[in-house]
Amino acid sequence: MLSESNFLRILLLGDSTVLGSVPRLVAPKADHLEELLRKLLSAVPGFPPTRVINKGQDNDTIERMLANRYDADVGQLESGLLDHVFIRFGINDRSYLRDWASDFPRTYHELIARVRRDQPRARIALETIIPYRDPESTAEVNAVIRRVAKEEGLPVCDTHAKYAEALRRGGPDTLNYRRIALADIPAAARPLISDDLILDSTVVVLDNRLDAQLGHLPAWFGDRHCNLAGFHVVAQALADYLAGAA
User: Under CATH, which architecture does the 4-172+227-245 domain have?
Assistant: First the structure.
């Protein structure tokens, strides 16, 4: 049996596109991001076994993380425990920060400084955000992420590029789940809605099985969060980065 010292420890920090809370609720037995990454890396010749810790949080920003959960999720971990830390924020920061252009890079630099202090051995990589927002603001966020990385002398894992390419190959809605209020489902389609698709009066479908009946509804394709296929793409981007950096 391998001892803990033989494992490469990887921490994932970010928002709901890191955590994937809805796919966990709808498909609890599926492989989620941390397990997908572990399995992908296990197939890389010569790559050490891994422990992957997912500390994404729904609706989170760096500012909120620093104020509410940093100490529990990072600061209180054993010093020197982590080998890699991936950070992917920006989707919510762009919406919620009052002075986004100033506060986003400022809080990003603060988070990096605290991770460096608490996990001095860890290799930190910043991730670009996935194509969740409109193209213009997504590009703005990713430009700031790249600028912060350059100022900090850190590498960038271009998760956005991998995700955008997968969307181009498969179509604009292949990597996102569908979420809509149960009350908005037409009566003719109600028999198709099984109980396992209903979460708190909301219908959530992780794939395209009901697109034929519900694709005409304005809100049907409105959610841009990752479905299970989307998280496979994110995991592959991380695995490719780590395999190349190993």
Answer: 3-Layer(aba) Sandwich (3.40)
